[in-house]
Specification:
Elements lengths: L1 H13 L9 E2 L3 H14 L4 H4 L1 H15 L2 H9 L9 E2 L3 H16 L3 E11 L4 E3 L4 E16 L5 E6 L10 E4 L13 E3 L6 E6 L11 E4 L5 H10 L25 H14 L3 E14 L7 E10 L2 H12 L4 E3 L3 H10 L4 E2 L1 E2 L9 E3 L5 E3 L3 H12 L6 E2 L3 E2 L1 H6 L1 H4 L8 H6 L2 E7 L3 H16 L4 E7 L1 E3 L16 H8 L1 H10 L6 E3 L2 H24 L16 H22 L3 H28 L4 H22 L4 H10 L19 H23 L8 E7 L3 H5 L3 H8 L1 E2 L11 E7 L2 E7 L5 H27 L1 H6 L2 H26 L1
Parallel strand pairs: 1-2, 7-9, 13-21, 20-21, 22-23, 24-25
Antiparallel strand pairs: 3-4, 3-12, 5-6, 5-11, 7-10, 8-9, 12-14, 15-19, 16-17, 16-18, 24-27, 26-27
Helix pairs in contact: 9-10, 9-15, 16-17, 17-18, 18-20, 18-21, 19-20, 19-21, 19-23, 20-21, 20-25, 21-22, 26-28
This protein binds one RNA strand through strand 6, strand 10, helix 7, helix 10 and helix 18.
RNA sequence: GGGCGAGUAGCUCAGGGGGAGAGCAUCCGGCUUACAUCCGGAAGGCCAGAGGUUCGAAUCCUCUCUCGCCCACCA
């Protein structure tokens, strides 16, 4: 994520934009508090023993020690953030933004307090939002329990949580269910507690499930709560905060919820009320932070009314004001916002923004920016100074994160930063926080600023380990980036991240990829070393203009322009991995494997001017390549450019120079390389001494004179051949014949060789040519292809066919001979 | 229950309407004065399966299978 952000920031900065990256961290309420609580536990203390103030002091201590680690990691990774703008969600400025947002939303009726069904984590002892609950398939049981009827007989009810029976206040059946219609209005008796339960009608009941009779527990189930609300049923809470049964649980009071379940089952068995137990797999909610099973529970909490905020957030994306990349995430975003439910924002924690609400002596709520303002309001309301008690709870961390795009810029003040940088251009993040963060930033940004917080959202894949598993501390497969930076370097880590960033939803990380990246860096380093040492004597005023460039220079410069164009295009569409790949192959396969070798002819030659030309092209290419690479590999590029007295980070990102494009040179070098490759292959397959120099003759082909003439020196160096006059050829024992493109050649051999190997090579070439030719000719003979395919495609196929035919003819002749 | 992603060489993956690609691994040969973290050469694939669209499909559409993930108040 951060590598990609830095690639974009550096690229845009080099391309002339005022690219500002606001770094910062959030306070991670539950996670941080949990960690510190664990620390305390080891010392045998609890947070409650310490008290709020001392505990918070302790958390701040922890934060000072570890909270900046992530920023240190970013720095080590080379992220070019504006560090002077570093922010933390609990900073005074951001806290003021949080209070301001809370107060305004409350005044607008978009924040309310009330008793509703929420998710409760008995370990964290706090309410959670729906998003903080992860549903996991669990193997449980469906218990079929008989509820005696007041009038005699019984009905059977199926439940997965028998312990919640203690909170039953009714039974419900579907009004259209013929089987039970006669029971509506009758009364059942709750086992164990003997409570009278009215049998009611409710559409929510699915006749197909279980027995078609639902036990209604309004305090511990969302659907039951809804039924209870509508029908005015009492809600009996049977659980304490830590997950034990409370005083409403009769004989089970004090038992842990799971012990209570067992006890209830035993009790029902002995009373003959348990009809059967059926194994049942179902999804159960778990706390995102501690994996504890959450309990739906009726509780008084603070909520954000989300529908009015969600609608503009949907519209903004529909209007194209925000674009998701890849686009498919748009649908996911819509689905969530369209079905959004109110957001429970209060947490029974201490680490976080304390809710700016005070209670008067009569329990009335006063929401204010601070205690002073609350007191002022209270004075007006009560006509005198009264005792005020601030709400103990803090806000969901994501509430403050939702304000991030403008709180970091000084909101609610109208600041220069806000005017300059809001809305921002780009957010890069993972899909795991699309709802938690992205959607909420859009809602809050639109609400408070009237404008989207960012125009583009780039969703990156999530990194998984070698086995495709999500990285998590509980799995123990997390990797400290600092360790990787130490072993392979930040640039290698960055390059690897870019390499795997083009994936679908997950990107598999493995250390062998780091080796690959390191090898590439090593290649770059050695390439630079070669160029720097071989151009050390280049006069400062030497200039490329006016020089006649040989084919290989024209070729590499032309290829360079193509690569510049490609890299730019890929960066513009955030296809980082393709940009990196393009550079990787250009540098390794073309620049290093071919051009550097070709340049040696002149670098090590006698002709000073030719040497100067080669040096200038090498320098120019190196500089362009360093600039192209810099957003990906800031460290190595700065180091190398430093030797040339260039600050690459402040350089301009290369643009293609059209006048350097040279299709003819590319064609010539392509033929040249093909010839060299063919000679090398022949040499290898004939088992010839790799060091021995062979005589080569070119018999046919449009570029024969060029390949042995202007490119003769290069050919001789790269293919280890010389091109003697006709007369010298007699010295050879025999000649091996080969074909490369439209060129056929003779390799004069100093000794007898394995002619079968040569024949087999020619035959393999022949087979390849024939099969290609067959498919080409089939296409060309197809009248529909000729009629409907684009002209250039047909022309290209025809040209290819001609070349293959020529090649086939020559191969055939050689085989006969 | 709804949705998404992935299935291409032994492995990890890129590509995404007109010649099947890379890295690693394998085989053969090289310490050639930038680099053995290297160089040269070779072998290896009905691009998951079945239909369809098209002159042309690994690529687009439909369905199926396998794996992974997200969302969801069937107790």
């Amino acid at each position: 994520n951060n590598t990609l952000q830095d690639v974009v920031i550096r690229f845009k900065r080099m391309d002339g934009y005022e690219a500002c990256w606001f770094p910062g961290t959030d306070h991670a309420g539950i996670a941080t508090q949990t960690v510190v609580e664990m620390e305390l536990l080891k010392e045998g203390k609890t947070r409650k023993e310490l008290g709020r103030e001392a505990f918070l002091a302790r958390v701040w201590q922890w934060k000072e020690r570890y909270g900046n680690e992530i920023l240190e990691q970013l720095k080590a990774l080379g992220c070019s953030c504006d560090w002077s703008r570093t922010r933390f969600t609990l900073d005074p400025g951001l806290s003021r933004a949080v209070r301001t947002a809370f107060v305004r939303l409350y005044q607008e009726g978009l924040i309310y307090r009330g008793e509703y069904m929420i998710n409760w984590c008995p370990r964290c002892e706090t309410a959670l939002s729906d998003l903080e609950v992860e549903h996991e398939e669990v193997q449980g049981n469906l218990y079929f329990v008989r509820y005696p009827l007041e009038e005699g007989g019984y009905v059977t009810v199926a439940t997965t949580r028998p312990e919640t029976m203690l909170g039953d206040t009714a039974l419900a059946v579907n009004p259209n269910d013929e089987r039970y219609r006669h029971l509506i209005g009758k009364v059942a008796i709750l086992p164990v507690l003997g409570r009278r339960l009215p049998i009611v009608a409710a559409e929510e009941v699915d006749p197909e499930f279980g027995t078609g009779v639902l036990k209604v527990t309004p305090a511990h189930d969302p659907v039951d709560f809804q039924i209870g609300q509508r029908l005015g049923l009492p809600a009996v809470n049977v659980l304490n905060g830590e997950g034990t049964v409370n005083e409403n649980g009769g004989p089970f009071a004090g038992l842990d919820r799971f012990k209570a379940r067992e006890a209830m089952v035993e009790r029902l068995k002995t009373e003959g009320l348990l009809e059967k137990i059926v194994p049942y797999k179902h999804a159960v909610g778990h706390c995102q932070r501690c994996q504890t099973m959450v309990e739906p529970r009726l509780s008084t909490q603070w909520f954000v009314r989300t529908k009015p905020l969600a609608e503009p957030a949907i519209q903004a994306v529909k209007d194209g004001k925000i674009r998701f990349i890849p686009e498919r995430w748009t649908k996911v975003y819509f689905d969530w916002l369209e079905n959004i439910r109110d957001w429970c924002i209060s947490r029974q924690l201490w680490w976080g923004h304390r809710i700016p609400a005070w209670f008067g002596p009569d329990g009335e709520i006063i929401v204010a920016m601070d205690e002073e303002e609350a007191k002022r309001i209270a004075r007006e309301r009560y006509g005198k100074d009264v005792e005020l008690r601030q709400d103990e709870d803090v806000l969901d961390t994501w509430f403050s994160s939702a304000l991030w795009p403008f709180s970091v810029m000084g909101w609610p003040d109208s600041t220069e930063d806000l005017r300059t940088f809001y809305p921002t251009d780009l957010l890069i993040t993972g899909f795991d926080i699309l709802f938690f963060w992205v959607a909420r930033m859009v809602m809050m940004g639109l609400h408070f600023l009237g404008e989207v917080p960012f125009r583009e959202v780039l969703i990156t894949p999530l990194i998984v380990d070698e086995r495709g598993q999500k990285m998590s501390k509980t799995r123990g497969n997390v990797i400290d980036p600092m360790e990787l930076i130490e072993s392979h370097g930040a640039d290698a880590l960055r390059f690897t991240m870019v390499h795997i960033s083009g994936k679908g939803r997950s990107a598999r990380f493995s250390r062998s990829l780091l080796d690959e990246s390191r090898d590439f860096l090593n290649k770059i380093w050695n390439m630079a070393r070669f160029i720097l040492t071989n151009t050390a004597d280049l006069p400062a005023d030497a200039d490329l203009s006016g020089r006649k460039l040989p084919w290989e220079d024209r070729w590499i410069l032309s290829r360079l322009q193509t690569v510049i164009g490609e890299v730019r295009e890929y960066l513009e569409r955030y296809a980082f991995h393709l940009a990196a790949e393009s550079l990787y192959h250009f540098i390794w396969d073309e620049l290093c494997d071919w051009y550097l070798e070709l340049s040696k002819v002149r670098l090590y030659g006698e002709d000073l001017e030719a040497r100067r030309t080669a040096q200038l092209v090498l320098r120019k290419t190196l500089l362009d390549v360093l600039h192209l690479l810099h957003p990906f590999l800031p460290f190595i590029t700065e180091e190398i450019a430093g030797y040339l007295g260039v600050d690459v980070s402040r350089g301009v990102y290369p643009k293609p120079e059209e006048d350097l494009r040279d299709p003819e040179a590319e064609e010539v070098l392509s033929a040249f390389r093909e010839l060299v490759r063919e000679v090398r292959a022949m040499r290898a397959e004939l088992g010839l001494d790799p060091g021995c120099e062979l005589a080569l003759g070119i018999s046919e082909g449009g570029r024969a004179s060029l390949l042995t003439g202007e490119l003769g020196g290069a050919l001789s160096r790269l293919a280890r051949v010389h091109t003697p006059r006709e007369t010298d050829q007699r010295k050879a024992v025999r000649a091996a014949r080969g074909v490369a493109r439209d060129t056929s050649f003779f390799l004069y051999l100093p000794e007898d060789v394995d002619w079968n190997a040569l024949r087999s090579r020619l035959e393999r070439n022949m087979a390849k040519v024939e099969s290609e030719l067959a498919s080409l000719e089939a296409r060309l003979n197809n009248t529909e292809f000729r009629a409907k395919a684009p002209e250039e495609v047909v022309a290209q196929a025809a040209a290819q066919a001609r070349e293959l035919q020529a090649r086939r003819a020559r191969l055939l002749r050689f085989l006969e001979e």
